[in-house]
Write a structure and sequence with these properties.
The complex is a heterodimer of chains A (323) and B (279). With 323 residues, chain A is of the alpha+beta class. Chain A is built from 7 helices and 17 strands. Chain A folds into 2 domains: 160 residues, Alpha-Beta Plaits (2-Layer Sandwich), CATH 3.30.70.520; 156 residues, 2-Layer Sandwich (Alpha-Beta Plaits). In chain A, strands 3, 4, 5, 6, 7, 8, 9, 10, 11, 12, 15, 16 and 17 form a 13-stranded mixed sheet that branches. The longest helix of chain A is centred in the first third of the chain and has 16 residues. The two termini of chain A are 17 Å apart. Chain B has 2 domains: 96 residues, no CATH class; 129 residues, no CATH class. In chain B, strand 16 and strand 17 form a beta hairpin. In chain B, the strands form 3 sheets. In chain B, strands 5-1-6-8-9-10-11-12-13-14-17-16-15 form a 13-stranded mixed sheet. In chain B, strands 2-7 form a two-stranded parallel ribbon. The chains are: A alpha+beta (323), B alpha/beta (279). At the A-B interface, strand 8 and strand 10 of A face strand 10, strand 12 and helix 4 of B.
Chain lengths: 323, 279
């Protein structure tokens, strides 16, 4: 199968269940909200070494936030609800509570904002309030309807040096999907980077997903296991251009000089599929002249996770949309 | 949806205990059984048919909707209407007696006229709206009780008597008119808003919670101190949460009312409460 004369491998991306949440960070200006969001989502590229995967989902206008200030929505993913709760509390405590003028709110509204299945709640202000050393106060309010509806939420007000840090008591966590991926093979680094950047830009327009690696792109794609006992993952030698004549598992030819991967985490498998399709479309838009030589995906033979995203099905969806 | 309508026929002077009059309880009974129900009247009891004319409507198009109870006429001799009610809707076209919504835990009560003393006392959840005025101790604790209202919302369109929200623990109380002496006294937590004037000693002994006064009182106890600024986010959330409420409070957000003056206290007790006053 080809799109714009670029071969689409007959393979699939294999993804696995994760737990996720969405946090809405607001601030006096969008710039300060971004500072907090960048800090919170820093060092959160892979659960292998960071505890969680996190990224900025989108910027929010004042009309889209609970307190009517500009903000940013971020998504955090972890392998368990317990680990996710730990990461939320630690990252919000160190990166949002500390950032001038910010407030943070639960961004999962099961009724309207996500088709993802609700899993549980994680502590947000419930633990952070103790920073107030007894001066903290709470307020139960319903921001969406008349009081007495039974949908009230608790907010904590923690005194800080610029006034108050306001945060919701808990964040809703949902069952989510992590590890969707695209592997872009190209003639050289220029071509690979151009295709990857175009794909990431298109995927960022899809709601409910993040691409957690730097710039949304990872060059150190990994395989499960290693020759060293202490390593749970190691370099994906099948896609390393310098090992094209050495690795028995190589999937490259001499015309491939650079391979980049985009990892996608989403609140549901449909979200990940939409993002992958958008990424394939954008990466291949330049045709063969762009230097992109193939589009592939990483999987572990179906043993790692229950979510299989077949590239040719996604590409066919693109063709249908195009016609 | 089953709607039971009770038209008041009782013109006596004794108090009637109407705590059995909840929408769910009446909807579960046939009209004949309802008419035979005995309600305490003074030291005696009377059959409900002697007190009300009972009619019943069943709307199968809304079969899943909670039951409704409509009371028509002057029910000011009837106390404890909706007491302990957990679901359904009560509409009263007229006034009611004391203890309306006492310890109600869900649903809604809407009263066209006035309500007596201890309205919404011990209320736990749901919504109680009084389009007229309420008596003393609205949303307050009973004598000897530790807590008054502990959840839900009480909205009074006109005036409230003294000791409004005394020992209130949680929830929202809004008064569109004036409130009497000792409004929000011994407040444990929750939000109390008064659009008109308040009597003497507002927020006396409040421990925590928010008292929002749209008109500054003539005098406040010296046990309240300046609460500073920097609570802009909370003010935004509070005003947004009131956008569906009484007009003077709903207008706080639409009119972008500036950050109010904040006083904290009562320092005679816990001192973590706040009074918000217009600047």
């Amino acid at each position: 199968m080809m799109i714009n004369d670029i071969p689409i491998d007959d393979t699939f991306a294999e993804a696995f269940p994760m737990k996720a949440t969405r946090l809405l960070i607001t601030a006096h200006t969008s710039n300060w909200a971004l500072h907090a969001a960048h800090s919170l989502t820093g060092f959160a590229t892979s659960v292998i070494g960071c505890g969680c995967e996190a990224g900025i989902e989108q910027a929010l206008s004042a009309a889209q936030t609970p307190d009517g200030r500009p903000g940013v929505s971020v998504l955090l993913f972890a392998m368990s609800g317990k680990e996710l709760a730990k990461q939320i509390e630690r990252r919000v405590g160190q990166c949002v509570l500390t950032c001038p003028s910010t407030a943070v709110f639960d961004g999962i509204d099961p009724a309207t904002t996500s088709a993802a299945a609700v899993s549980d709640t994680a502590s947000l202000g419930r633990g952070l309030r103790f920073f107030g050393d007894g001066w903290q106060i709470s307020k139960v309010m319903d921001l969406g309807a008349a009081a007495g509806s039974g949908r009230e939420k608790r907010y904590w007000r923690v005194p800080v040096m610029d006034g108050e840090f306001v945060c919701e008591e808990t964040a809703t966590t949902v069952k989510a999907v992590g590890g969707g991926n695209l592997i872009l093979l190209a003639r050289d680094a220029d071509a690979a980077l151009t295709a990857a950047e175009a794909a990431v830009a298109a995927m960022r327009r899809v709601p409910n997903v993040i691409m957690p690696f730097p710039g949304g792109v990872v060059r150190s794609g990994s395989k499960v296991g290693s020759k060293y006992k202490s390593a749970s993952a190691s370099t994906n030698d099948a896609f390393c251009p310098t090992l094209v004549g050495l690795s028995p598992r190589t999937q490259l030819d001499a015309g491939t000089g650079c391979v980049l991967e985009i990892v996608i985490d989403g609140l549901s498998d449909a979200d990940v599929g939409h993002a992958m399709a958008a990424g394939i479309g954008a990466a291949t838009a330049g045709g063969k002249a762009s230097g992109l030589t193939r589009v592939s995906a990483g999987n572990y033979g179906g043993k790692l996770g229950p979510y299989h995203f077949h590239l040719r099905e996604l590409a066919a969806r693109l063709a249908t949309q195009g016609s | 949806m089953i709607t039971t309508t009770l038209r008041v026929a009782y013109a006596g002077s004794l108090r009637v205990d109407g705590s059995a009059l909840t929408p769910a309880a009446l909807a579960a009974l046939p009209v004949a059984r309802i008419e035979r129900m005995l309600l305490p009247v003074g030291k005696e009891s009377m059959a409900l048919a002697e007190l009300f004319t009972v009619t019943r409507q069943d709307d199968p198009r809304n079969s899943g909707a909670p039951a409704a109870l409509v009371i028509e006429g002057d029910a000011r001799r009837f106390d404890r209407i909706g007491a302990g009610s957990a679901e359904g809707t009560i509409l009263v076209h007229g006034g009611v007696g004391d203890y309306v919504g006492f310890r109600m835990s869900g649903g809604s009560i809407d009263i066209d006229g006035d309500a007596g003393d201890f309205c919404a006392s011990g209320m736990r959840a749901g919504r109680l709206t009084v389009h007229g005025s309420v008596g003393h101790f609205a949303a307050a604790a009973l004598p000897g009780d530790m807590e008054g209202m502990s959840g839900g919302a009480l909205t009074v369109h006109r005036h409230a008597g003294s000791r409004l929200a005394d020992r209130m623990r949680r929830g929202l109380v809004l008064v569109g008119g004036d409130a009497g002496d000792f409004a929000a006294s011994r407040l444990v937590a929750g939000t109390v808003g008064v659009a008109g004037t308040v009597g003497r000693h507002p927020a006396y002994g409040m421990r925590r919670g928010t008292v929002l006064l749209l008109r500054a009182p003539s005098r406040l106890a010296p046990t309240f101190t300046e609460g500073g600024v920097g609570f802009d986010v909370f003010w935004r959330l509070l005003t947004r949460s009131l956008t569906h409420e009484l007009a003077p409070f709903a207008a706080l957000q639409t009119n972008h009312v500036a950050l109010p003056r904040r006083l904290t206290g009562d320092l005679a007790v816990d001192g973590r409460g706040e009074i918000l006053l217009p600047r």
